[in-house]
Amino acid sequence: MDAHELFGPVFEGVSPDMPMHLARIHSKAIRVESAGHVETAILHIVETEASTAEMRGAAMHNRSAKHSFLFTQQGLLLHASKAALEAYDQGSGDMAYTKGPHDGGITLKHLFHLGPYQLYPGGKEEAHAALEEGLNDIFNLQLEHHCHLQPYLSSSDGTAKWAKIEMWPMMDPVSETLAVLVKRHDVTRDVKINEQLTTQGEALQRHNQELEQEQRRLEQEAEGLAQRLDAVLQDKFASYSFDSDTPIDKTLGYLQSIIKGKPPSVHTAVELYNVLSKSDTASLRQPVGLEQQLLKDNEMDSEVGQSMLQLLKGTQSSTWTRSQEDGKGDPSQAEDPALPADTPASSAPTDDAGSSLTSPRHQTSEDLTAMIALSVTPMKAEMSWCFDIFGFTEATPGNTLAMLTFHLVKRAGFVQLYKLDEVKLCRILQAIEAGYQRDNPYHNSIHVTSVVQMTHMLLCHGGVLKSRAMDPLEHFSSYWSHTGVNNDFLIKSRHELAITYNDQSPLENFHLAASTRLIQDPRNCFVPVEFMAHPTNVRRYRDVCIDQVLGTDMKKHFDIISRFQAAFKTVPSSGAPKPNTSNSMNWNEVKPQDKTLVFQMVLKCADIGHLAAPAETHKRWAFQLEEEFFRQGDKERAVGLPVSPLMDRNQTGGMTRSQLGFFNIVGLPLFKAMAELFEEAQPMLEGVMANLRLWEQAADTAL
């Protein structure tokens, strides 16, 4: 039988315009019995299933419930939801389309070209490129999702709007081939919100920039007001402050302001010109107007100011009186007043400067080592910023300096490193100790022992050695730097030492010369011959000792600290100069003369180290120094010299009246500069601050 004859009745009345359905045909053989005959026949059963539209619509609904299109890879429409067709109809205007894929109906290209091309910045080409990009992402790159933002005009009011075209890959349930599911929906509101947010964000950013500019303007204005206020306060309270800046410091500050792009005012330039034009070479490293500041400070009485001036600048020979010229007095013959009961007496004959010229009785190194084991170690001399020097002195009578120095030198490894002769080392230490008058209340061997211990703390626990600012030989040399006593009396009285050294640090020079003679004596030379045979070693050893000892002369105080601060402060691009720290410096690149400043600063801090000592120790040193000053005043009165400021025991207060001035003008800037460079020396600075507060409280109580 002809198939057309067979299936014709089934599809009779079906046209291409009608929805397509799927039909399932089952055929099977059957036996037919008719009029006694049995024949085999074929039975065809035709069953109609769901339409293709229903199948595609169901699959599309599962992916996207509204506004969905399904296109082939060529962009031909396979199916569209009712909502999608209505939305397209509204956006397409008069554009005709059919529901089938083969009659020139909707295509993916139509969807991408919906709306005027001129709304695209790139016109028709940009719209076409967007279509190609979407197809490539879905079918070639096999991305899970593609999105395109499409501009169009509203059909109702002609305003510009935005639609989002989203694309996903999908399998066609009918043909089982890869297709693309497309959704187009209006996002004008979202775009406008984003535009508003962007606009608001840009406005907020501009506002923040304006606020930052205003903040900078206000900061500059505040800085200007602060400078004006500071100028007013300085003018109003000039008598209550001390300006420690030297002409060099002021010049460097002026240049730093120029480097930072903040040229100083003409007034500042004129002031600097006047300062420099009135300064001689010697005063370039002295605070500007030092004498005027000290003598006209209303918080510091005139005698205290004169004392500070004498300490820091010295007294010229013109202060020598007529009684001396007539030979009525000889300072070397003046009798010392009675000594305190607890001051040890010295039986060794001395020269005019108080140094013993006899060979002292000495102990062996074994004797000293045995005593050290019993008395030094328990007192933690090696590691304590609060070392009890007076307790140590009571435990080591007559050997305080020798024992502590021997102990520290040996524990530091110098005996083994330089192959030192321990017996001769002990002998020279005792000779040096005997060279100090025991009846001096302050400048005695106990003071030198305290200097040695504080020097050790700065080197070993204050960060100096750790920073490699000093090598072992320079470290070793630091233990042999010792101070003298007041030079002004020797200079005013035309003492032999003052004449010998031309009034230039006579006691410091004398002690250097005396200690050198002791070391060069074969009986005392504890350094191996091979070491002394190298001129470089001897020269370096001598340089360190000379620089450190001469640096303790207070007449050089401002020169040293000014150079030290200039050498170790950086000039940042903005803000005030700030100090380097020892950890941030490459000491191999530091100039030798700048390293010398470090050596000098170490001994200067150690020389007045009692300012950082525990309160009771510090006060004891202060009153012992006061007694020594009184004794010098007694000698000055005995030979007809004017009694130096604060050295008249008949006046109230004495040296202790000058403590606040000494702390603020000399002590605090010195220790602060050292602790800024060597941060591990901070405990020393904290001790100084604690003692300063004690004197401030005492001054407030006395008011």
Q: What is the CATH domain class of the largest domain?
A: Mainly Alpha
**Overall pLDDT confidence:** 75
Task: Report Rg.
Answer: 50 Å
Strand order of the largest sheet: 4-3-7-6-5
CATH topology of the largest domain: Catalytic domain of cyclic nucleotide phosphodiesterase 4b2b
CATH architecture of the largest domain: Orthogonal Bundle
User: Tell me about the biggest sheet?
Assistant: 5 strands, antiparallel
Low-pLDDT residue spans: 93-103, 235-240, 316-362, 372-378, 477-485, 571-576
- Distance between the first and last residues' Cα: 138 Å
Let me know the number of strands. 9
Portion of residues in helices? Answer: 40-55%
- The total tally of domains equals 3
Class based on secondary structure composition and strand pairing: alpha+beta
What does this structure look like?
This protein has 703 residues and is α+β, with helices and mostly antiparallel strands. It folds into three domains: 53-184, PAS domain (Beta-Lactamase, 2-Layer Sandwich), CATH 3.30.450.20; 187-236; 300-552 and 607-702, 3'5'-cyclic nucleotide phosphodiesterase, catalytic domain (Catalytic domain of cyclic nucleotide phosphodiesterase 4b2b, Orthogonal Bundle), CATH 1.10.1300. It is 50% helix and 10% strand. It has helices at 3-7, 52-63, 82-92, 108-112, 123-140, 188-236, 247-259, 266-277, 290-295, 302-313, 322-325, 365-375, 389-395, 400-411, 414-417, 422-434, 445-460, 472-478, 487-492, 496-500, 506-520, 529-532, 535-551, 557-567, 592-607, 615-638, 659-677, 682-702, and strands spanning 21-34, 37-51, 68-71, 77-80, 146-153, 160-171, 178-186, 569-570, 578-579. The strands form three sheets. The protein has a five-stranded antiparallel β-sheet with strand order 4-3-7-6-5, sandwiched between helices. The chain has a two-stranded antiparallel sheet with strand order 1-2. Strand 1 and strand 2 (37-51) form a beta hairpin.
